Fold Arogenate dehydratase.
Amino acid sequence: MQGLCGAHSESAALKAYPNCEPVPCDQFETAFEAVEACSVDRAVLPIENSLGGSIHRNYDLLLRHRLHIVGEIKYAVRHCLLANQGVKVEHLKKVLSHPQALAQCEYTLTRLGLVREAVDDTAGAAKHVALEKLEDTGAVASSAAAEIYGLDILAEDIQDASLNVTRFLMLAREPIIAGTDRPFKTSIVFSLEEGPGILHKALAVFAERQINLTKIESRPMRWSSLTSPGVDASGLQKYFHYLFYADFEASMASDDAKMALQDLEKLATSLRILGSYPADTTMP
């Protein structure tokens, strides 16, 4: 998990693996590396939030590292405004938290007139406010972080919408065996040559088989800056090359999913299966 004890990632990890011993990592990449180095068995990392959107850093790290998605968990995030004991809301001038948490609480923080400062994680923000005994600075973090670091909860549920859900991925060194005994989801990343209707043709391989795409995300192909930009059909230089990340509701054990990916591979310049894993169908 990324973040200190009391971070939302810790709660998500315990929801995913109730008997696990969470190991805090200071950065997302550190968590990937810990799994690869066999220091931990799994990484539980956020990939998207219902208010703040995608966590792009982790999309990029999925491609850079060779870990496999073996599960997902949906976790309802409830943010609190924390401060040292005796500090009131009107005393605050600034608030610290992870960029995603700040984005998810934008309306409340704007209404309070607080300057926002991004830090590596929510629990780390709470710990810093407590250790430095700050009187004009609060933190956006969990109620668990308030208890761990001895802070007061000035306000609860300060996220912009009551339904604030983060989807976490469970990552492992080896893939799991996909089945058909329960709902499965498959995540892939692919690239395409540019051309009229090429993306439409790529997505049609799923529609033709009644496979539901739950997400598609384009990200810049980062290494393209190391190569010649090339030219497009009109003779203009191309500077923007994209990868497409997609999730779809099907198991790699199903014939429809296999046939869809076979057809996609004919269109794609590259294709990688990031994981086929049980879908989280529970309430967050």
